[in-house]
Fold:
Amino acid sequence: MTASPRPWFCAALVLLLCLCLAAPALAGGKDEITAGNRAAAAGKFKTAISHYGKAIEAGDLSPANMAVAYNNRGSANDDLGRRKAALADFARAIKLQPDYAETYYNRSFTYEKMGQYKKALADAKKAVALRPKDQTYLQREYYLATKQK
Structure:
């Protein structure tokens, strides 16, 4: 006579199988940021915005990573011409991580596109103040300073 598997063992096996099959669908915030970055690099800005939104909603990001998600979504919004949404995202990123130079750098482009050159230059200067040896930030500040004249 063979023993049949215990009911709890079968239930546990089914639960384990369900968790394994569902795992790819349960992407975390960092995975969503990565997916958003890939979409943005491919020029799929609406898809990128969706991924960054999911990252923000995931609830498992550190404040620094939340700032990255908001910053990146701000850049994608700016690429789609959604300036107000971009500025709102950049403001959230700065509130979460005021020393994240990349957000000031990116926001300077949005302000420039809006014709707000003084604000653009102020943000470029802030990025340089935070990372004074970064050549990209220094060049951006110089470029915007020449537009002020």
Q: What stands out?
A: Residues 6 and 60 are 37 Å apart (CA to CA). The longest helix spans residues 63-79. The two ends are 94 Å apart (CA to CA). Residues 8-25 have pLDDT under 50 and may be disordered.
